[in-house]
């Protein structure tokens, strides 16, 4: 397996707070890498740096062997990295279908000058996309009329619509009702595996991490405190106590749930 | 509202304007002016879709009007002057746009205002070239090579203004429904998302800005050839404010709004000025207040609600 995204020596501080203090992290092509860590650790900041939204004070990031630091977010998108957001970023005055179609059109451009956004080509693909995410029944709702879970899904769908090679998701299941969480993750996994997307996702729910991730990186005090397969990381008492502050998931599913809430 | 309904409404509207101009001859002039302003207001509407308000768009209107005034002494041909002046305004819009689309909201609005006032000062101060506040009188222009009587030229300008209004109305309607127009509306709600989809919000806004300058330029050219007199007042900030006023009065929800608003505005202005000479600005102010408070969709929004009620009744 080859390295798709590689961060070396990333450093960024806000005031005195070191969100990244020498981060080295490789994302392998085809894997699902989870990033866990306490609130305010710097997980979102990492996604912001990898997508050109924030510039680290030191270090480098390469994607597919090419340096990407200093590129504008839209250049990085064009290079194949898409992201979803911790707080869904939807076009609130547009319908869900229009949101999806606009993302599809953005990828498919250049645009025929006056052809409508909802022309057959974009509409069909948007409907198909929404269907895969179970959002088709909500297609004609305005984005600001959705509940949080649906907003979250629509947000991810828009990133998937860009057909990225690498998808960075910031807490994909936060806001999704716990009863639906696993179903959502199943769907998402299927969509991403089908299209052979490499995924990095920040997650607070350890059950989701256990089921979804190939590897887990633990982010704390600006460093990668531990990195490895979920069975190993999620049962490492030191990691759990020092970094997440929860009891091990292990076989006791009950404690796992409580732990997930404690970390949110 | 379906496409065919809108086409029908546009044609009815055009017929009404012509009928009015025919029945009350001096309204022909008023209608031409209204449509010319409506074209500029259509540009304001475009920018409003992106959540941006320009308080300086009279710049483009005045620029084209002066371009026509200067050009008329060289080539006094309507069908040459109009497109050249409009293209000149669009070019100016491109140059200014490259700068102002970097800003949003109050900064965008005020920068536009500032630049229009710079142009105003230039027009006012360089007396040797522009004749200052006296302005420039235009010689009569030919129409497709024909020298027309005043009467015929008046009709020609009205028909030209109508055709431009119908053409740009249809164009902007399609534009707004296209990915460009939808991305433009996306600037208002979530510009960062556009960037993370690979779209430059600035470029999307720039395209709309240039288009708005082009339309204001068409309006300015028609205005100049209809009034045959241009003065720096065309570029004064109140003229820009008037365009924003009309946009809100007419309603930003549809391409009908600007023209409905402009016709209502000009008629109110003419009649109110005749009835209560000193108080017509007050009347306009009250009308604007009422529209903002009770009919945020403007006249077009009110009209459409009435139509819908009649249909469902
Ligand atoms: N642009 C910024 N300017 C100033 N401070 C920032 C900025 N971005 C992040 N921070 C701060 O850096 C720290 C790390 O933030 P970040 O959002 O990366 O945490 P996180 O790990 O994603 O946390 P959470 O789990 O709560 O989402 C926080 O204290 C945050 O307030
Ligand atoms: Mg975060």
TrEMBL record, chain A:
<dbReference type="GO" id="GO:0005886">
    <property type="term" value="C:plasma membrane"/>
</dbReference>
<dbReference type="GO" id="GO:0005524">
    <property type="term" value="F:ATP binding"/>
</dbReference>
<dbReference type="GO" id="GO:0016887">
    <property type="term" value="F:ATP hydrolysis activity"/>
</dbReference>
<dbReference type="InterPro" id="IPR003439">
    <property type="entry name" value="ABC_transporter-like_ATP-bd"/>
</dbReference>
<keyword id="KW-0813">Transport</keyword>
<protein>
    <submittedName>
        <fullName>ABC transporter ATP-binding protein</fullName>
    </submittedName>
</protein>
<dbReference type="InterPro" id="IPR051120">
    <property type="entry name" value="ABC_AA/LPS_Transport"/>
</dbReference>
<dbReference type="InterPro" id="IPR027417">
    <property type="entry name" value="P-loop_NTPase"/>
</dbReference>
<dbReference type="InterPro" id="IPR003593">
    <property type="entry name" value="AAA+_ATPase"/>
</dbReference>
<dbReference type="Pfam" id="PF00005">
    <property type="entry name" value="ABC_tran"/>
</dbReference>
<keyword id="KW-0547">Nucleotide-binding</keyword>
<keyword id="KW-0067">ATP-binding</keyword>
<feature type="domain" description="ABC transporter">
    <location>
        <begin position="5"/>
        <end position="246"/>
    </location>
</feature>
Automatic annotation (TrEMBL), chain B:
<keyword id="KW-1133">Transmembrane helix</keyword>
<feature type="transmembrane region" description="Helical">
    <location>
        <begin position="33"/>
        <end position="51"/>
    </location>
</feature>
<protein>
    <submittedName>
        <fullName>Branched-chain amino acid ABC transporter permease</fullName>
    </submittedName>
</protein>
<dbReference type="GO" id="GO:0005886">
    <property type="term" value="C:plasma membrane"/>
</dbReference>
<feature type="transmembrane region" description="Helical">
    <location>
        <begin position="155"/>
        <end position="176"/>
    </location>
</feature>
<feature type="transmembrane region" description="Helical">
    <location>
        <begin position="58"/>
        <end position="75"/>
    </location>
</feature>
<dbReference type="InterPro" id="IPR043428">
    <property type="entry name" value="LivM-like"/>
</dbReference>
<dbReference type="Pfam" id="PF02653">
    <property type="entry name" value="BPD_transp_2"/>
</dbReference>
<feature type="transmembrane region" description="Helical">
    <location>
        <begin position="81"/>
        <end position="101"/>
    </location>
</feature>
<dbReference type="GO" id="GO:0015658">
    <property type="term" value="F:branched-chain amino acid transmembrane transporter activity"/>
</dbReference>
<keyword id="KW-0472">Membrane</keyword>
<keyword id="KW-0812">Transmembrane</keyword>
<feature type="transmembrane region" description="Helical">
    <location>
        <begin position="204"/>
        <end position="224"/>
    </location>
</feature>
<feature type="transmembrane region" description="Helical">
    <location>
        <begin position="244"/>
        <end position="267"/>
    </location>
</feature>
<feature type="transmembrane region" description="Helical">
    <location>
        <begin position="279"/>
        <end position="302"/>
    </location>
</feature>
<dbReference type="InterPro" id="IPR001851">
    <property type="entry name" value="ABC_transp_permease"/>
</dbReference>
<keyword id="KW-1003">Cell membrane</keyword>
